[in-house]
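Protein kinase domain-containing protein
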Amino acid sequence: MAAGFLAVYLSVCLLLRCSASPEPNTDAFFVAEFFRRMGAPPLTKNDSSSDVCSWPGVSCECQCGKVTGLVASGVGLSGPIPETTIAKLSVLRVLDLSGNNITALSSDFSELCGSLASLDLSANNIAGSLPGNIGNFKLMESLDFSHNRFSGEIPREVGSLTNLRFLNLSSNFLEMSIPETFLGCVALVSIDLSNNKLGANLPVGFGSSFNNLTTMDLSGNRFAGKMPDLSNLPSLAFLNLSGNLFRDLSLEGLREALQVVDLSKNQFRRLISQVNRSFTSNSSSLIYLDMSMNELTGEFFLGLGDLRSLNHLNLAFNKFSSQEFVHIELPSALQYLNLSRTNLTGRIPSGISQMLNLKVLDLSQNHITGSIPELGSRSLRVIDFSQNNLTGEIPESLQETLPRIEKFNFSFNNLTYCAEKLPSAMLNSSFIGSQSDCPIAVYPDNVVSKGRKRLDLKLGFAIALSVFFSSAVLIFLALVCRRRTGPWTIKQLSYNEEQNVSGPFYFQTDSTTWVADVKIASSVPVVVFEKPLLNLTFTDLLNATSNFDRGTLLAEGKFGPVYRGFLPGGIHVAMKVLVHVASVTDEEAAQELERLGQIKHPNLVPLTGYCLAGEQRILIYDYMENGNLQNLLHDLPLGVQSTEDWTSDTWDQDNTCAQSITTDGLTTWRFRHKIALGAARALAFLHHGCFPMIVHRDVKASSIYLDSSMEPRLADFGLSSLVGFSTDGGNATFHGSAGYAPPEFSDPENASATMKSDVYAFGVVLFELLTRKKPTGDDEYSEDKVTNLVGWARALVRRNELARLIDPKIRETGASEKQMEEALRIAYLCTADLPSKRPSMQQIVGLLKDIEPVIGEQ
Ligand SMILES: *[C@@H]1O[C@H](CO)[C@@H](O)[C@H](O)[C@H]1NC(C)=O
Ligand SMILES: *[C@@H]1O[C@H](CO)[C@@H](O)[C@H](O)[C@H]1NC(C)=O
Ligand SMILES: *[C@@H]1O[C@H](CO)[C@@H](O)[C@H](O)[C@H]1NC(C)=O
Ligand SMILES: *[C@@H]1O[C@H](CO)[C@@H](O)[C@H](O)[C@H]1NC(C)=O
Ligand SMILES: *[C@@H]1O[C@H](CO)[C@@H](O)[C@H](O)[C@H]1NC(C)=O
Ligand SMILES: *[C@@H]1O[C@H](CO)[C@@H](O)[C@H](O)[C@H]1NC(C)=O
Ligand SMILES: *[C@@H]1O[C@H](CO)[C@@H](O)[C@H](O)[C@H]1NC(C)=O
Ligand SMILES: *[C@@H]1O[C@H](CO)[C@@H](O)[C@H](O)[C@H]1NC(C)=O
Ligand SMILES: *[C@@H]1O[C@H](CO)[C@@H](O)[C@H](O)[C@H]1NC(C)=O
Ligand SMILES: *[C@@H]1O[C@H](CO)[C@@H](O)[C@H](O)[C@H]1NC(C)=O
Ligand SMILES: *[C@@H]1O[C@H](CO)[C@@H](O)[C@H](O)[C@H]1NC(C)=O
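Tokens:
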């Protein structure tokens, strides 16, 4: 590089000096001389042309050798501009020497005053005061002295520049006040005096003098008193007064053209309500408003919501009176919202979840109460909720996004978060004062209260069923059988009247809010695989669930809420809403769902259909009448009174749906074996019978349902590509449920679901079936100081104390002890620490079939 420059330099030197040296006192000579004496490689081409007009950066109006423009930006010029060089270019109009290391102007510089219209000396190293003879440059239109070391006052003579349109004196050391003569620069379009040490009051009339002004930047100075009067600035679009000592706000006469207003870091102290009219009525093109760090009092102005183009709003750090957050209307297009320390009280308005462009949200240092709503925006980068009085859980969807967010802070609230979802490095600083508590998938309270009302109808099982209802899945056995056309039909009629409802629709459960962003409900089709002629729409789903009423909520799983209802034609279904949707297109989702709909096995809960309602994927499954294994094993009173209940005559008479339970009951080994074998067959089918094979990823007792004839059926397979948290990079794994995750998952490197992790989880279910102990936190083994079922059971199997493990209920029924012991050994194999030591699901099916109890053997 250096060598190249040198070569060029030398060749030009030869060219100029020796062979074709320009005639003295020509423009070519002055330019060549300028470059030579400023110590930079000249801008000549390396051909032998001596026509100055063909040199790079040089322009001439005619090819007569007279230079009208010289641009030498960032070419390494250094030192003072020498005498008798460029100042002698008699018709020079444009001079750009920015980005060099020029330290002073030449004393003959003012000779350019008769021609120069545009001078850019920005980003140099020029010190001293601005030249007083600047006033002689009558033709000057654009003057940029920014980023130098000019000091002293702005000379009075500047007022003579009546043609000046662009003035940039930013980032120098200019001081004192702006001279009154400045008002003479009537043609100004843009003034940038930012980052100097200018001070005192602005000259009276500053502002109203510049009819064509679009940009005014006085930021970072020491201006005080009244801010400029804007009423005569019809074209002003950009106003930055940030970082001064202004006190008096005068926003009367703000004009429509205004787009950017930065008044931050001053001492404005007027009642903000006076701002009201000024902003809301005529300034609809406002994009950016920053009034933070002032001393504004009173209440926020109303009608903020009318500022439709506003995308940046900062009112932080003022002295507002306390105000209910929900009463403040916010423009929905906002990308940046900063209401830190604005004396807000009450709850966060739910409208915030509809601000889909939000990138930065700062609500810190207020008195906000209640819980954090879901945030609909997918582009969040910064979130600060610190120092409020927020309570409850941080919404799961928000927690999922935190690892991708630049900065967040939830400290000093009373919030609950789920540490498992977050990288540990983030936890310490951002959740001070919060507690980690991973949510249970189900909210029993909600379900209980709904269930109890109906239970009054059925006094016969009140006791047994009240527990039943409180479980994850409502089992409406008796109700369904007897009252099939009861309350549901009535509800359907009442909702039919609202057929033409239009969205978007918002639905709320205890743990989440979900949105079906559809315009007209009846235009969104529901695909029902086996019954394509039904022509169902989203309206039918609304009707079937009384508009996704909480009363029809069956459970809230980790994928989202599950509702139940009857579709037209009497199809009894469970509808699972995937709240955390993966970013796949509708076509891809539909394709995947069509594939899942084709996967059929007697031991799988079949996908009946689906509906793509906006971004939501609603999956429709056959309704499983008899609940799931979790309910049957752990939630139902299998103890003292249960044997009678399940086999009692009353049950028998009332219940025509589930006969098999009466003969078998869950208290027999035979029935539990049937569940184990059914679930194993389902998994073996997913692993070895499907192409591409399917890893279930979430095998657990509550994924195994019992249909109307008490056949076990595995649910929730194949969802991994449809739910959000399984697709993006490091978070690609679905960590299973507590107690069911294999040891290899504790190392995040290995934590990807495989067939062998399904096998492990199946082993846990098998232990559960045999011991009727919960996978974690059961009292019994806690006495042995073991924290989970697997640890406890494996230790006892190893010590061959098998009898101790077996659920007394099935021990008492006299089932073959040997078979149960064998089943415990199978569960032991499945839960081997090393994945490679675990058998395949196909092998497990074989092992379980070998110990199948024969009917009558008990
Ligand atoms: C200029 O010099 C470079 C290398 O120094 C050479 O490649 C190029 O051809 C020369 N151009 C002219 C017009 O001579
Ligand atoms: C700029 O020029 C001055 C004096 O000519 C010199 O001391 C300084 O090092 C130069 N700075 C750069 C960045 O070239
Ligand atoms: C003034 O100059 C600075 C630095 O050179 C630049 O960042 C700024 O945008 C300019 N101001 C205007 C209004 O063009
Ligand atoms: C303002 O701009 C208009 C149109 O560009 C021009 O005709 C008028 O002379 C300008 N006003 C001043 C004071 O320069
Ligand atoms: C206003 O000026 C300050 C200081 O110069 C700067 O930090 C801020 O970004 C500017 N505001 C806008 C909207 O450009
Ligand atoms: C607001 O706009 C209306 C017309 O749109 C105009 O008559 C009125 O003067 C404007 N008000 C201000 C304060 O600029
Ligand atoms: C603010 O303006 C709205 C209408 O734009 C008006 O209803 C309200 O009373 C005003 N508030 C104050 C404090 O002036
Ligand atoms: C909100 O505004 C305040 C005051 O200007 C500032 O200190 C804070 O950093 C801002 N918050 C964010 C997230 O930008
Ligand atoms: C908050 O509002 C209350 C009453 O409106 C007021 O007394 C208090 O000073 C305000 N707090 C702050 C920090 O401005
Ligand atoms: C939070 O609530 C408590 C009790 O109501 C109150 O004492 C405290 O001042 C509140 N904190 C904030 C920051 O509002
Ligand atoms: C928040 O938690 C702190 C300590 O955990 C407790 O002292 C305070 O009463 C709680 N505040 C509310 C409003 O629950």
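The pocket of 2-acetamido-2-deoxy-beta-D-glucopyranose (ligand 11) is lined by residues 389, 391, 414 (CB under 6 Å).
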